[in-house]
C-alpha cells in the first residue's frame, strides 16, 4: 500500500494533543474518537494499492548465423507478425538479431515497423550476448518475455548464465527451434590430429565423415595454402573414417582445411568443411 499525500500524517500530532487536552467523558467515546480521527487522517493521505500491470515487453531474438536454414528469415518474420497481432496496445515488441555480434533491429514501442533483421557477420552464433541485450531492453521491475528463434547451435559463452539472470528477474525465455532438415546431409563430424609434432615427423590426419547413404564423395585437403590431397572415395551409410598423411616442416603452426562434397541436395553445405591448427615444436630458424 502507498499513500498519495503522506504529508497528511503530520496532522496526527495536533490531533493527538487535542484528544489529550479535551478528553471524552467515557472510555468508549474516547476509543471511537481515536478511530474516527485515524480514519479521517488516512482518508486525507490518500491510501492506494498498486496493482500489478499486465502490460509488458516482448523481445524476439532472431538467429542470423550461417547454420540457419534458407527459409529461416521468412519463418522468423511470420513469428514476429503473429506475436505482434496477439499483443494489446499497452504491450511493446522489440527484436534483437544476432550472429557473431548482436544488434537491436527494432526497439520496443517502435510500432509495427517492417523487417526485424540486420546485416552482420554470420560466421558465429553468440546467443549469450543476444540474451543480455534482450534483457537490457526490458525495463526493471516490468513484466517481460523473451522469444528465441534459433537452431540452438550457439558459440561463445554458454547462454545458461543469461537465462539465469532472466529467471532472477522472473522473465521467461521461450524457444522455437528453426533448423535444417538432416535428411541427405553429408557432414564432417570432426578432424583429428596429434596435439603437437616435431620438425620432420610424419603424422596422420583423421577425418570422421557422416553420410546418409552409401555414396561417392569428393574430398580435398589443403595445408599452408597448398593442395595436399584430393580425390574421390566411396563411403558407407553412417560414420566412416578418412585418413591423410603429412610431414611436419619448420617449427610453427600449420593450418589445414578439409572439404568434402556428397550428392546433390545437401541441406547443410556449411558442415562439409573443417579447419585444424597443428603445432610444430622446435627452435625457430
Structure at a glance:
InterPro entries: VWF_A (IPR002035), vWFA_dom_sf (IPR036465). By secondary structure, the protein is α/β, with parallel strands linked by helices.
CATH superfamily of the largest domain: von Willebrand factor, type A domain
CATH class of the largest domain: Alpha Beta
CATH topology of the largest domain: Rossmann fold
Beta-strand percentage? 35-45%
Q: Major sheet: size, sense and barrel closure? A: 5 strands, mixed
**Which CATH-level-2 architecture of the largest domain?**
3-Layer(aba) Sandwich
The assigned structural class equals: alpha/beta
How many DSSP H or I helices? Answer: 5
InterPro entries: VWF_A, vWFA_dom_sf
Pfam families: VWA_2
Keywords: Membrane, Transmembrane, Transmembrane helix
Organism: marine sediment metagenome
Architecture overview:
The chain has helices spanning 12-21, 27-45, 72-86, 127-136, 160-168; strands spanning 2-3, 47-48, 57-63, 92-98, 102-106, 144-150, 172-177, 187-192, 196-197, 202-211, 215-223, 226-235, 238-247, 252-261, 273-280. It is an alpha/beta fold and 285 residues long. It folds into three domains: 2-48, no CATH class; 57-177, 3-Layer(aba) Sandwich (Rossmann fold); 187-280, Immunoglobulins (Immunoglobulin-like, Sandwich), CATH 2.60.40.10. A five-stranded mixed β-sheet has the order 5-4-3-6-7, sandwiched between helices. Strands 9-15-14-11-12 form a five-stranded mixed β-sheet, with no helix packed on it. α4 (127-136) packs parallel to α5. The protein is elongated, with a radius of gyration of 33 Å. InterPro entries: VWF_A, vWFA_dom_sf. Keywords: Membrane, Transmembrane, Transmembrane helix. This is VWFA domain-containing protein.
